[in-house]
Aryl hydrocarbon receptor interacting protein like 2 (Echeneis naucrates), 336 residues
Amino acid sequence: MDRIIRLKSEIFVGKMFKMEVWETLLTSMRVGEVAEFWCDHTGLYPIVSKGMRLIAQGKDPLEGQRHMCGMGNLFHYHSTGFPELDELMRTPQPLIFIMELLQVGDPLSYHRESWMMEKDEKLQMVPVLHMQGNALVKQRQFREAASKYKEAVLLLKTVQSREMPGDVDYVNLGRMIIPLELNYCQCMLELEEYYEVIEHTNDLLDKHKDCVKGYYKRAKAHAAVWNEKEARRDFNMVANLDITLASLVHREIKALSERMKVKYWEEREKYWNSPPPHAHLVLSVDLAGRSTGRRLGLAGESASSADPQPQPVHAGAGAAPASGGANERAAEEAQR
């Protein structure tokens, strides 16, 4: 515990995460005991200390890091961001830890995250999460059910990542993922998270190109976001893969056509048949019967001085029209 910032830290014994020496020290203490330990220098302490200092400041301990381990980030930034820790990296020294053991928990008293579980534990947890998700779906708690399915998928993918691609175990784990992914997508459809469905079904169908339910759910998502071409393509793929679903596909395509037709006429009525707001056309006719006009941006807006103005026409027998004061005076003098 850090008494200065009143920050409690948790350590899961047995994982030897980063500061292995801390597990050794804490397992030798009693609850409520405060002890001081003198330890040899450990190169990881500056990195661990940096993360704890960021937490004390209310920041993310991984803030500013690239997608690599803490040591890898030092090669990019050449600094921990704290001068005293940089100095400790340059000149290693023995460390003194003053630790207080506040509580010891039972192994089953907390929710175990995936990185804490062994392979067998993860595989045993998957059907439990699947059943919990199904129960939540029956209660129409789709958001909570989706989180259960997603957690189960992540557990299986973690186990699968340790297998050789193409091996029997790798393929079997991939098949176990399919129903969980489909259930997750169904929850997202119910929650109208259509682009999330499209993203997940794309990944699923890249690996399992004969998954009928995957095509159907992706088609429903495309139809919901007006992607008519993609929706028709996926519906037709469903009918090609399973002929017994042809009637269902026919109904879905018919409903899609009706929805697209309604959308077309709504947009036509909204955008094509209505003039721009607050606009009208000003027309004027000259003596020769020609019409001129301009559209004003706002009702009541006066014409700009740059707009061409219709001029009155003065025409004599056999004479071209003349305008302007100079031409009128010349015509009067010719008559006199």
User: Anything to note?
Assistant: The first strand starts at residue 34 and ends at 39.
